[in-house]
């Protein structure tokens, strides 16, 4: 298989594996009221207050799946939800204190894991080079989608 076909498959496998890691850490932290995809959304959200569309765009989520998960997160007390003062049709969401606390614990666990992996697998520069290469590829694919060229 050529690299141009293998890379997207590898990225998808890495994403699924990361969701598996989130599942393990959620269990270890006894956070049982959200799933890994929802945890990923919370981590993506950070301390910002966004419209639902902004979160969908930020995380490249499928809109119908994102709406379902956002509703579940609001119901579970992880997202606060208010009308956008500038566009009454849009809803703004933000993390609640419950979400901040659980995200802080989860982020600390993920940071520990990243440090252990980096220590075990080699220099930090290797990970930084992979990250830079993937960001460059993302920009090239975005340019192709938007402008038809790279």
Strand order of the largest sheet: 1-3-2
How does the helix and strand content classify structurally? mainly alpha
CATH architecture name:
Orthogonal Bundle
The CATH top-level class label: Mainly Alpha
Question: What's the order of the H and E elements?
Answer: HHEHHEEHH
CATH homology superfamily name: Winged helix-like DNA-binding domain superfamily/Winged helix DNA-binding domain
Estimate the mean pLDDT confidence: 90
Fraction of helical residues: over 70%
Tally of DSSP helical segments: 6
Based on CA atoms alone, the radius of gyration comes out at: 18 Å
Largest sheet: 3 strands, antiparallel
What portion of the residues fall into strands of 2 or more residues? 5-15%
Please indicate the count of domains: 1
The coarse silhouette is globular
Distance between the termini: 23 Å
Summary, kept brief:
With 150 residues, this protein is mainly α.
Give an overview of the whole structure.
The protein has 150 residues and is mainly alpha-helical. It has one domain (3-147): Winged helix-like DNA-binding domain superfamily/Winged helix DNA-binding domain (Arc Repressor Mutant, subunit A). 71% of the residues lie in helices and 8% in strands. The chain is built from six helices and three strands. It has helices at 3-28, 36-45, 52-59, 63-75, 97-121, 124-147, and strands spanning 50-51, 79-83, 91-95. A three-stranded antiparallel β-sheet has the order 1-3-2. Strand 2 and strand 3 form a beta hairpin. Helix 1 crosses helix 2 (36-45). The longest helix is centred in the first third of the chain and has 26 residues, at 3-28. The model has no long low-confidence stretch (mean pLDDT 90).
């Amino acid at each position: 298989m050529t690299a141009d076909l293998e890379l997207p498959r590898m990225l998808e496998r890495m994403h699924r594996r990361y969701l598996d890691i989130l599942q393990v850490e959620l269990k270890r932290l006894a956070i049982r009221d959200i799933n890994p995809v929802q945890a990923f959304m919370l981590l993506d959200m950070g301390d910002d207050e966004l419209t639902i569309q902004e979160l969908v765009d930020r995380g490249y989520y499928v809109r119908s799946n994102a709406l379902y998960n956002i509703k579940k997160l609001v119901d579970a007390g992880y997202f606060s939800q208010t009308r956008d003062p500038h566009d009454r049709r849009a809803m703004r969401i933000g993390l609640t204190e419950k979400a901040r606390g659980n995200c802080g614990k989860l982020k600390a666990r993920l940071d520990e894991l990243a440090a252990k992996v980096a220590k075990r697998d080699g220099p930090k520069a290797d990970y930084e080079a992979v990250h830079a290469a993937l960001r460059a590829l993302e920009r090239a694919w975005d340019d192709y989608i938007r402008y038809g060229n790279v």
